[in-house]
UniProtKB/TrEMBL annotation, chains A, B:
GO MF entry, a single one: DNA-binding transcription factor activity
Keywords of the record: DNA-binding, Transcription, Transcription regulation
Name of this chain's protein: GntR family transcriptional regulator
GO process terms (BP): negative regulation of DNA-templated transcription
Domain HTH gntR-type: from-to ranges: 20-88
Lineage: Bacteria, Pseudomonadati, Pseudomonadota, Alphaproteobacteria, Hyphomicrobiales
Keyword set includes Transcription: yes
SMART domains from the UniProt entry: HTH_GNTR, UTRA
Cited Pfam families: GntR, UTRA
Domain of life of the native organism: Bacteria
InterPro entries xrefs: Bact_HTH_transcr_reg, Chorismate_lyase_/UTRA_dom_sf, Tscrpt_reg_HTH_GntR, UTRA, WH-like_DNA-bd_sf, WH_DNA-bd_sf
Gene3D superfamilies given in the database record: Chorismate lyase-like, Winged helix-like DNA-binding domain superfamily/Winged helix DNA-binding domain
Length: 253, 253
DNA sequence: GAGTGGTCTAGACCACGAG
DNA sequence: TCGTGGTCTAGACCACTCA
């Protein structure tokens, strides 16, 4: 059988090489419609049987593609009501690890101060992380996060201008305290995956001064690469904070 | 259809409550045969169609159970040759994070010194982690790991005697430098899952002395709970090392 | 070539959520 | 009550490994 659309429209095309499994190509197609903003967080996907008809594949093939999208956290099933695009929430993640709490023990939303935004030539390491050429223009943003009356977290953030020009054109007030919602609202960019590397090292004199640390104190440095639904890197950042009281949980299968 | 064994033996029983999905019960059944030592690392599982016949379920149901066992790292598929029990390798994990290398940059297998082994009443927190009652007997083992001529990692390890009595009956030479292989070899216990929590804190005077740190230096403390194939906790440990140069990578979907 | 997992199909029936 | 996802079945054919 070469075409199983039962008398109705011809099937929609799938992304990806024809030699890839259908469920892989369907995964990429759905991820691409999230990346493009065609489907946005909160939206419902078509029902599985509708997707099967739409793309001309069997229901079991749709199910396998959706299984993997759910595993990767891009979408979410709600039994009886449908399948929905997720909005991951990474922006406030680091604050949790630094274990600061208000007097009642609740988590704090720290104040956010954008110190500078400029376009600079991409250093080699950052260009590589972002899939750009060395020396190509890149947006560099410095941000400090404050709580308990002092700077606690220093962030250097690098963004490709092709996707993120609005981040230098809008005022800090329009951007607000959380970056990832601003990326989505102002630039149509959705962060879906992150990879981090944690290092403990000696504070530089500048960082020590900004964080109120003594000479010889240690900082925790968290390097992060953030990717969109299609797995393309869209942000690189390094954050530094006081190492003491840092805490992190992981589980490995 | 109530019984689909085609004229041959009746199906083998599945673990778990009858109201659970068949693929979940099959997952638990296979995990249980790993825990019990019935199937050991390196062994091949029966072919998927044989498992389907053995347990009286459809091939697709076997496939879904095996998919999840593979996702959880308990088994491994090799296309064309079979499905095999995996042997996870966690024991040396922490050493990687501390970034010590020999002069040629290779990873080091640090020397391992068992300082003490004793049976003590379980403190409340440890009893809870191990699913025991407070005050019940627990094995406490202290181990130091050395490289570059000094102690670099201090480990306090707690084990339930019901599973691990051989660990106090055998000599340190019989145990060898790696604990998890010794658990498997001497006690028939296989570690399949771990959860860790990393904290940076001030060194206690004793830890500072043992690690050669100055007063006020920081240590990284890694608390770990290790579980077998059935998800039962079988070991709790806390390891401390110098915080400086600590490094950790994670990715979050 | 025999046996294995990998992909894909085409359904049936159940459990859940919302109107 | 209807539409959704959740489970389960029963096969076909392909791709890979190894003797």
């Amino acid at each position: 059988m070469t075409n199983r659309s039962t008398g109705s429209n011809p099937p929609a095309p799938l992304e990806g090489d024809a030699h890839l499994p259908l469920y892989r190509r369907l995964y990429q197609t759905i991820a691409g419609r999230i990346t493009s903003g065609d489907w946005r967080p909160g939206d419902a996907l078509p029902a599985e049987l509708d997707l099967a008809r739409l793309y001309g594949v069997a229901p079991g093939t749709v199910r396998k593609a959706i299984d993997e999208l759910v595993d990767d956290g891009l979408i979410e099933r709600r039994h009886g009501s449908g399948t929905f695009i997720r909005r991951p929430n990474f922006d406030n993640m680091m604050v949790r690890f630094l274990l600061y709490r208000d007097p009642e023990g609740r988590e704090i939303m720290p104040a956010s101060h954008i110190i500078s935004r400029e376009i600079v030539p991409a250093p080699a390491a950052i260009a590589q992380h972002l899939g750009m050429a060395e020396g190509e223009d890149v947006i560099r943003m410095v941000r400090h996060r404050h709580w308990e009356g002092a700077a606690r977290l220093l962030e250097d953030i690098y963004l490709p201008p092709a996707r993120f020009r609005p981040m230098i054109e809008h005022s800090p007030e329009e951007i607000g305290p959380l970056l990832y919602p601003a990326y989505e609202r102002l630039c149509g960019q959705l962060v879906c995956f992150i990879e981090e590397e944690i290092t403990i090292l000696d504070a530089t004199p500048e960082d020590a001064a900004l964080l109120g640390l003594k000479d010889g104190d240690l900082v925790v440095a968290i390097e992060r690469i953030a990717k969109n639904a299609s797995g393309q890197p869209i942000e690189w950042r390094i954050s530094r904070g006081e190492a003491r009281r840092f805490r992190y949980r992981i589980s490995v299968g």
